[in-house]
Amino acid sequence: MKILSGMQPSGPLHLGNYLGALRQWVRAQNEDAYYCVVDLHALTLQIAPEELRANTTDLLASYLAAGLDPEVCTIFVQSHVSYHAQLNWLLECVATYGELSRMVAFKEKSERQEGYRVGLLTYPVLMAADILLYESEEVPVGDDQRQHLELTRDIAERFNNRFGPTFQVPVGVQPPVAARVMDLQDPSRKMSKSLASPLGTVYMFDAPVDIEKKIAKAVTDTDGEMRFDWDQKPGLSNLLEIYSSLSGETPEEVAARYSRYGELKSDLAALLIAILAPLRERYEELLASPDDLYKVAARGADKASVLAGSVYRRAAAAMGLT
Ligand code: AMP
Ligand code: TRP
After folding, report:
1. CA–centroid distance, residue 148 to ligand 1 (Å)
2. Whether residue 305 is found in the same domain as residue 275
3. Structural domains in the chain (count)
């Protein structure tokens, strides 16, 4: 089965990125899997050039540290494969302004920026190009990407109806728990790179002392009743989901084993540290040899270009380009 997913090089990865997406990628890497660093998407963030470069290197190291193996799956940087930008244009001539302006991510981000760029509106079309170029059947992403995936499906179906069967129509896949990890200080909003709260966000490569501190200070509630209940107990339920996603139990099973919040928190911190500490070590080793990371990316781009090129040419020909 073909699989593609990507992340923006927009800063260090947090627990939401890891549990919601990256760990799912590692589990699926034995399929015909393509994983990219979507640097073109990060340009919508108006990021400084040197920061974008550093973040791209960092994200490559993070992918490998998390367990993606370049001998098994294809790891590459989006801008190294020119077909993404090329197919993007073809799809911009299929997508409508109306559907793009209805995207929740666009509405939220455009409200926060004055004079926002066109790229913020067309962002999901480039994402559709990423996915459709690799004939992806499944796209492992966190819950916040559902709407973008639906749009990708709409664009693919519309294209196929208008120009003949060209694209595989993909589905988005979310993990059963932790598809939406919430901020530890404010469980009403998701853990996020862009709106990071210092104590509310656990980074994948945080030092163990910081992980302990952040989990210990996580906001819960005052009635002290151990119960998995997102409506009444969002802070606690968030911790139970994180725990469950690490231990493989259901959140209810985890809740049944504990009576005190403090105990749950200290065991959760220990579990997180046991899983993340070896990744952190590997991440630091990998970052020490950036040339090796770009060798991996170059091999990945060569391999990705073969499939992407053939799908691009099929789409261009279907539309009448000669
Ligand atoms: P981003 O940080 O927006 O580049 O997201 C990269 C990947 O992580 C996407 O698949 C997101 O859906 C996923 N993701 C981001 N934040 C969270 C979160 N708080 N919980 C679960 N998944 C997330
Ligand atoms: N929009 C995604 C995010 O913010 C990143 C992304 C770009 C992506 N292209 C993709 C995810 C293709 C999956 C497949 O997280």
Report:
1. 13
2. no
3. 2
Question: Which ligand is closest to the CA of 136, given by its number?
Answer: 2
3-state secondary structure of 195: coil
Residues 108, 122 share a domain: yes
| Nearest-CA residue for atom 8 of ligand 1 | 17
* Beta bridge mates, 3: 33, 138
Q: Note the pTM of the prediction, 2 decimals.
A: 0.97
The answer on 156 and 111 residing in a single domain is yes
Q: What are the tens digits of pLDDT across the range 64-109?
A: 999 999 999 999 999 999 999 999 999 999 999 999 999 999 999 9
Which residue range(s) make up the domain with 31?
3-178+290-319
Active-site annotation holds for 193? yes
Q: Answer yes or no: 109 catalytic.
A: yes
Instruction: Check whether residue 16 and residue 107 sit in a common domain.
Output: yes
The catalytic residue among 2, 107, 190, 213 is 190
Judgement on whether residues 212 and 304 belong to the same structural domain of the protein: no
How far away, in angstroms, is 141 Cα from ligand 1 center? 7
| Tokens describing residue 145 | 């990407």
How do residues 135-177 score in pLDDT, each as one tens digit? 999 999 999 999 999 999 999 999 999 999 999 999 999 999 9
Give catalytic status of residue 190 as yes or no.
yes
Same domain, 222 and 312: no
The pair of structure tokens assigned to 122 is 């067309």
Ligand 2 nearest-atom number relative to CA 144: 15
Indicate whether 83 and 58 sit together in one domain: yes
| CA pair distance 129, 141, nearest whole angstrom | 16
List beta partners, residue 76: 36
Residues 135 and 13 sit within 8 Å (Cβ to Cβ): no
Residue 161 C-alpha to ligand 1 middle, in angstroms? 32
Residues with CB under 6 A from ligand 2: 4-8, 38, 41, 127, 130-131, 139, 141, 145, 148
Determine contact, residues 255/227, Cβ cutoff 8 Å: yes
Q: Are residues 63 and 171 in the same domain?
A: yes
